[in-house]
Design brief:
4-stranded antiparallel β-sheet; 15 strands; 36% helix; alpha+beta
């Protein structure tokens, strides 16, 4: 099992998830073999190709030229022609995108999501329903964005259209802000960064990064619960209200759990325990 940092960050750097396969490989680096089975060609030819000498697009992206009769090439646009001309097959010049239904279906087990027929709206993708204890029966949405503003629009769309709690997934948390966290908390909804939660195993399958069986850990002994809550407060600057809202339980149920009067086998107890074991999502500098 290993993380997929390059892949998740690439998804937020390729506009519209549309580019020739060479750019996918350039952006994903060592993680490209993981995403390659999910790439499908469009019927549109690309206009740029990676340049080894000047990798940044504004300095010298190679340009894809269509010579007709199925002949293509990537040529250097620098005035001194630093890079060699590369002949391309038509398939190499076609823009590729992700088969999102297949991709989401492969991700679902690692995220403990029961997949459903993919539904797209307002730039979001509804991929299924959570079966994890802390978010059980919450609809799960995938937002692949390239800016904080885009994430803001996606979040507001969900808050307006879904009155019940939901799970918002994104490749990374780099566009997440403190305001987003507060909005999600008030709605009793959760944000999940794929970069922090999903890796890949030796067979190329998506797997959770957290150790297997963590959610099945023994319940916190009643005598230790107040100490666990206090430690959570100190680590994250949180309050009791932050905990029971994140766990989607009533205030009274939280204090019943704290006193050992709520069954350890109940879904409410499991959700509280999971929140206490799960790091709070923090916003990254923007």
């Amino acid at each position: 099992m290993r993380p997929l940092t390059q892949l998740w960050r690439a998804l937020e750097s390729i506009p519209g998830l549309l580019d020739v396969t060479a750019w996918w490989e350039h952006s994903c680096g060592d993680d490209f073999p993981v995403i390659r089975p999910y790439l499908v060609p469009t019927d549109v030819f690309g206009h740029r190709y990676p340049c080894p000498r000047y990798p940044r697009d504004h300095e010298c992206p190679r340009r894809i030229i269509d010579y007709g009769d199925g002949e293509f090439a990537a040529i250097c646009r620098h005035s001194h022609q630093f890079c060699e001309r590369i002949p391309l097959a038509p398939k190499d010049a076609l823009i590729h995108t992700i088969d999102m239904a297949k991709f989401a279906g492969a991700l679902a087990p690692a995220l403990k999501i029961r997949p459903q027929k993919l539904r797209e709206f307002s730039g979001l993708r509804e991929i299924g329903v959570s079966i994890a204890p802390a978010t059980r029966n919450c609809p799960a949405f995938l937002a692949i964005v390239t800016s904080t503003d885009q994430l803001q629009r996606s979040l507001h769309e969900l808050l307006l259209s879904h009155p019940t709690p939901f799970l918002l997934l994104a490749p990374t948390s780099r566009f997440l802000t403190a305001d987003h966290i507060r909005l999600l908390d008030r709605h009793k909804s959760r944000f999940v960064s794929l970069e922090e939660t999903v890796g890949v195993d030796g067979g190329g399958r998506f797997v959770p990064l957290q150790p297997a069986g963590e959610e099945e850990a023994a319940p916190t002994p009643v005598a230790d619960r107040q100490a666990a809550v206090t430690a959570y407060h100190e680590r994250h600057g949180a309050t009791d209200a932050d905990i029971y809202r994140a766990a989607r339980v009533d205030k009274s149920d939280f204090y019943r759990w704290l006193a050992g009067k709520l069954s350890d086998k109940s879904s409410k107890s499991r959700r509280i325990e999971e929140v206490l074991r799960t790091p709070v999502q923090r916003s990254s500098p923007v």
